[in-house]
Amino acid sequence: MNKIIILFCLLTTISVFSQGNIPNVDLKTMEGKTISFHEVTDQNNIVIISLWATWCVPCIKELDAISDVYEEWQEETGVELIAISVDDSRTVKRVKSLINGKGWDYQILLDTNNDLKRALGASTVPLTIVVKDNEIVLRHSGYSPGSEDELYEKIKELTL
Amino acid sequence: MKNLLLIVSVLYGTLTFAQDKGYFFGGFESNTQWLLNDEGLNFDAPEDQLRSNNYFRLDYNLGKITAGVQYESYLPSALLGYSPVFDGNNAIGTYYLNFKHETIDITAGYFYQQFGSGLILRSWEDRQLGINNALKGIRVIFTPTDYLDLTGIYGKTRNGFDVSEGITQGIDANFNISEALNIDRIDLDIGASYVGRYQNNGTNDTIPSIVNAYGGRLNFVAGDFYGGLEAIIKDPDVIANEGQLSSNKLYDGTAMQVDLGYAKKGLGINATFRRLENFSFYADRLAEGNIYNQELIGYTPALTKQQDYMLTNIYVYNAQPRLIIETYDQRAGEVGTQIDLYYNFKKGTLLGGKYGTKVAGNFSYWAGLDAEYHIENRWYKAEFIGNGSRLFRDFSVEVKKKINKKWSSVATFQNVIVDKGIVYGGPLAVEDDIQASIAVLEGTYKIKGSKSVRFVVQHLWAEKDRKNWAAGVLEYNINSNFALYLADNWNYGDTDIHYYSTGGSYSKGRTRFAMNYGRQRGGLICIGGVCRFVPENTGLTANLTVNF
Fold it and tell me: In Å, how far are B28, B60, B81, B85, B89 from B77, measured between CA atoms?
């Protein structure tokens, strides 16, 4: 029990120090090129990062739901969504056929050995984070229908 | 614990010097179970009723340097079905120091690495499966240009809070031909890997102390087409089954995987073929085939589609890379294929309706290798494809449709045939097949904002094994942070057991907390194609994750 208390104390202290920094890990593009997560988030626009997988039902629901309104979002706020697949080699080959079959317009990146997933401490997907000026300003795990509308409200606030 | 505090204070010290430049990140995850006696399930709670897996990870970055530790505790015991090496232990599980600057990336300590598709080498962590085969040693990644990278590794594989007896070394190279030669029309990259395991052979000279594996691969994207090929050969090694050498004979191993796909907007097709022959690769020759997936070097997941629902996960496939030549069981590997199809009926068309209709289908067929066996002299010969016994076959169709602003629905049908030996363990292709059909209907109703209700009804038809099942889930999302559910799997065809459960989850920002109570159906729990066997149990479970 003592150990647990110590851990909690540590945790709370440390959260004060951590400031939504962007971990410096490498990802792959669909063409197999290496790109660092810093390069991905280093844009003028607000960037939504969605960690997803082909086998994750809520992830696909979320990306499908956003896909329906994505054009509007982009026109109104210029926001960019980057969908980073954490599929490992078992399912990564399905990524390309799935995104096309779904007709998604997102930029897709691969995190095949889960380096980013670990660095973000995401024990489950979907994990949605919003990055503004190279800082994580919003973080949400899981998906429930309609939460994309809440996400968009926040994006609009951030673009003001 | 002392170690942890020491490391934390060092990190704190560093921070003070760093004057705001560095930052911490990490997380805490706790999965706890309180097991209860359950007569209806014939389940007697073990002596340690409370079981808890906890992970505390802390990383610190300062410019080019990143360092981290992961402390783990399995007190008083690890969750049911985890390797006993964890029970009652708590210690620093992994730690590392990494330097990264432009073309060079060096890690000392524990690291995670994958070569190619992972068939030849993959070290990773999966807490749900109890897998952490991080390598402890040194890794150097050199990326001189955009189109070339080289990786070298040397280390021992983590096994519980210890490391393997065997040492793994490896080199991996990736070269993007199109980038190097400025070819636009086709994207072509090639790669090559070498992985070797050194393990003392004691006094037995016939056992090789070094077993090497070599692999090559090629991937291409040409317009809407894409594909890949990977092949690996592994030097002759003895076979060990269940921790015992079965003879002094040596057998080489091979693996081959081919992928082909076609994707354009609205349509995606993907086909995979894989053949494995005697392709178990562990950091300790005696760890071959251990049921807890400890000390793995190569990654040979089942390449079937991961199904989404409770009843579509009763009859699942588990990859069969092993070589066994015994009177009661003969296996040499597996060969098979998996095909996926995704199609989107556009908005405004007859089948697409107002919002479009999304269809997904899959077909897979996996067989044991067609081989001749001579059991007395431990000899075998396998065909390349041949006509081996079918171990698994499934096809499924899923239709997703948004009906209106409030309603959306998913309908799924799956038909599966699986060998009994795959489901329950034991010799393959000896006992009967089990054939089952599963139908699932799911609906989601958006009440207002992010308040919604979701229901799932499922039915499984089977003539054998435990026969018919019915199942249902009701989920209430109160808002985007808070959800409750109620579920029941009812095996009415045979045992009349209800596997009921109920629970809820709360997530906000960096924290997620979930709790549930109920019965867990025993069987294989598979994540990413790797399976862990979980015995039936009843209890209360709590999960907490915090990230920072």
Answer: 18, 30, 11, 10, 8
The CA distances from residue B533 to B81, B293, B396, B526, in Å, are 6, 11, 24, 9
DSSP B96-108: EEEEEETTEEEEE
Q: Which two tokens stand for residue B27?
A: 């997380």
* Measured distance CA(B135)–CA(B121) in Å, rounded: 11
Domains, chain A, ranges and CATH?
Answer: 22-159 (3.40.30.10)
Q: What is the ipTM of this complex?
A: 0.79
CB pair distance less than 8 Å for B261 and A123: no
Q: Quickly state the pLDDT bin for B107 (edges 50, 70, 90).
A: very high
- Give the single-character DSSP code of B328: S
Phi, psi of B48 (to 5 degrees): -85, 95
Q: How far apart are CA B442 and CA A124, in angstroms?
A: 22
Residue B443 lies in a domain: yes
Q: Is B337 on the interface with A (CB under 8 A)?
A: no
A53 pLDDT higher than 60? yes
* Residue among B150, B157, B148 nearest B198 (CA): B157
Determine the residue type at B502: T
What is the spatial distance between Cα A158 and Cα B159, in angstroms, rounded to a whole number? 46
Q: Is B255 inside a domain boundary?
A: no
Distance CA B456, CA B461 (A): 17
Residues B474-520: pLDDT tens digits?
A: 999 999 889 999 999 999 999 999 999 999 999 888 898 999 999 99
In chain A, the residue whose alpha carbon lies closest to the alpha carbon of B61 is A23
Radius of gyration of chain B (CA): 25
- Chain B (197-216) residues lying within 8 Å, Cβ to Cβ, of chain A: none
pTM of the model: 0.90
B521 domain-assigned: yes
Q: Which two tokens stand for residue B212?
A: 């090497």
Which residue's entry shows tokens 């592994």?
B234
Our CA-based measurement puts residue B102 at a distance from the nearest CA of chain A, in whole angstroms, of: 11
Number of domains in chain B: 1
DSSP letter string over A90-110? TTTHHHHHHHHHHT--SEEEE
- A-to-B residue pairs, Cβ atoms closer than 8 angstroms: 207
* Domain extent at residue B395: 301-548
The DSSP bridge pattern shows strands B333-345 and B379-382 to be unpaired
pLDDT tens, position by position, B370-424: 999 999 989 999 999 999 999 999 999 999 998 998 999 999 999 999 999 998 8
Query: Which residue type is seen at B521?
Result: R
Assess whether the previous peptide bond of B535 is cis (omega < 30° from 0). Answer: no
User: Residue A52 pLDDT > 50, yes or no?
Assistant: yes
Q: pLDDT for A67-122, tens place per residue?
A: 989 999 999 999 999 999 998 877 888 898 899 888 899 999 999 888 899 888 88
What 8-state DSSP symbol labels residue B45? Answer: P
Contact at CB, B113 and A149, closer than 8 angstroms: no
- Asked if the structure places residue B526 within a domain, the reply is yes
